[in-house]
Design a protein that fits this description.
The protein is of the alpha+beta class. It contains five helices and ten strands; from the N terminus they run βαααααβββββββββ. It has helices at about 15-30, 35-40, 45-50, 60-70, 75, and strands spanning about 5, 105-110, 115-120, 130-135, 150-155, 160-165, 165-170, 175-180, 185-190, 195-200. The protein is globular, with a radius of gyration of 17 Å.
């Protein structure tokens, strides 16, 4: 069974759930947008757009916001309890190893035009976050952002514009890109179809 967690636009002033949660958690900590911008490395203008539901935010950038607000990323992405996952089998492997079967399903997080499907179960001693990412056409280009860790992207289908340190690289099926994530980067689908990417980032987001 697959669990899909969405934060699409709602009727409340055009805010997405993640934007509303960001504003709520920021105010609970007594932070201004300027203070959150300083701690997260994102601009005041971009954070304001996210809070107002004008712009979506990638999981990696949201991870920086979550760290600044001392909240788990998952709390920004859904209402209520944590999304349920299939019960673990009796012979659960040790924490340095996970095995994720296709029939067990996967958790998906939807942010604006982008859907992230998580490819592995949690393992306390594991640092990679593997995902299949589906990027729909259109939407706003998010702000270029640098963060700790590394990032790898392999294009399965469609095309992808991947900007690294201000230079755009167009990736086609079979192309891949691997970077130290501290370099400012962003990606965008400027075609008419959905682009599918296998992405691996460090550190883990959840």
């Amino acid at each position: 069974m697959r669990t899909t967690v969405r934060h699409d636009r709602g009727d409340g002033g055009g805010q997405t759930l993640v934007g509303a949660r960001m504003r709520q958690f920021r105010k609970e900590r007594g932070l201004t947008l300027r203070g959150l911008a300083t701690q997260s490395g994102l601009s005041i203008g971009f954070l304001s757009q996210v809070e107002r539901g004008i712009s979506a935010i990638s999981l990696t950038a949201l991870n920086g916001v979550a760290a600044a607000l001392d909240r788990p990323v998952a709390e920004f992405l859904h209402e209520g309890d944590q999304p349920s996952r299939p019960a673990a089998p009796a012979d659960t492997p040790p924490d340095h190893f996970t095995l994720t079967r296709a029939q067990n399903g996967a958790t998906e997080y939807v942010s604006g035009q982008t859907t992230y499907r998580m490819l592995s179960d949690r393992g306390p001693q594991l640092v990679l976050e593997p995902m299949v990412v589906h990027i729909a056409p259109g939407g706003r280009r998010e702000e270029a952002y640098g963060h700790a860790g590394e990032e790898f992207a392999y294009v399965v289908s469609g095309e992808l514009l991947y900007e690294v340190d201000g230079i755009e690289h167009r990736l086609f099926p079979g192309d891949s890109l691997h970077l130290r994530s501290s370099t400012p980067h962003r990606l965008y689908n400027d075609t008419d179809g959905v682009t599918t990417v296998v992405s691996v980032v460090t550190p883990r987001l959840f």
